[in-house]
Design a protein that fits this description.
The chain contains 18 helices and no strands. By secondary structure, it is mostly helical. Helix 5 packs across helix 6 and helix 13 runs parallel beside helix 16.
Amino acid sequence: MKPIRSFLDRIEPLFTKGGRFEQLYALYEAVDTFFYSPGDLSRGSPHVRDALDLKRVMILVLFASSPAAIVGMWNVGFQANSALTSMGLLSIDGWRGAVLPLLGAGYDASSVYDCFLHGLLYFLPIYIVTMVVGLFWEVLFAGIRNHEVNEGFFVTGWLYALILPATIPLWQVAVGITFGVIIGKEVFGGTGKNFLNPALVARAFLYFAYPAQISGDAVWTAVDGFSGATALGVSAIEGMTGIAGMGLTWTQAFVGQLQGSLGETSALACLVGGLFLIYARIASWRIIVATFAGLIIPSLLFTDAGSSNPMMTMPWHWHIVVGGFAFGAVFMATDPVSAAQTNAGKWAFGLLIGFMTWVIRVINPAFPEGIMLAILFANVFAPVIDYFVIGANVRRRVKRNA
């Protein structure tokens, strides 16, 4: 690593004030801190000492979400290979069809290797476009404001790629992350000042701007000419009868063997990642537990097998494994910037997300998925929730000391 350190030190004067590339200092600083810890230290006292830093948090979140990503990539390949088999096809056209044989992979749905590589070839272009376009905007705004490039975008870009369907056009990926970074974060001052989750803002924009490519039946299986609806899409029309007609079992849904976005399908992988984040004290267990409770409680109270509303027939244990609920509850709702900050507020915040997810799914089945909109709705109210919690605490202390 010494040659890298020497090289960075040698070119640093070009990017500092008065240097030829002064306007690009944010880009230089981003590369430098990617390889090494920042040289700026707090030398005065008092100041807060904490074992956590942004780089460590970023790495731990990426590590925790990796199981969901791995299962998701396998599932994309499994769904595609299964569809090819059902259509009597032995291969696919395009560059993926040329690359897979070079990697020693085929189209065998029973092969974990074949399925994972097939799914990986859909994930990588989405992730690359996300990072290139997103980092361009991050560096641009950092250069204009003379701020450092925040490493938190690596998590935002990673999570954004995981909540997209595999077949989404790459130009829409670029448009979505552009909207998420600029409108969801930078217009409010950048990282730490946004009150909405940028990744969800980006996906919400795509959801309403290009519904055919983000929510249609043909977007979930990476095979041209094949249509396969999600479990939530089917249940919104036919209820649990429709899910039974798909041949989908609860265990398959829990593991992640069903139609869905790249990294959202496996509730099991999401829960494993959530336990790790709770153990590492990165994510708030209060928000996660409250979010699940907010969905489970109304599902228990209002489930009616004989209801004319198809979604009213779905029991709570199905609600938590279909769609992106588990992924949203673990990785999106717990965003430390856009979530509630007080302990009591985290309970209210999570309960609101869970309840709104149930309302959107069941009462308004025009939007089969609900967790994305529910989190954004709760993000808006998070400051209000904390305001009333703090106010109540102040009044209680004043009364106690009176």
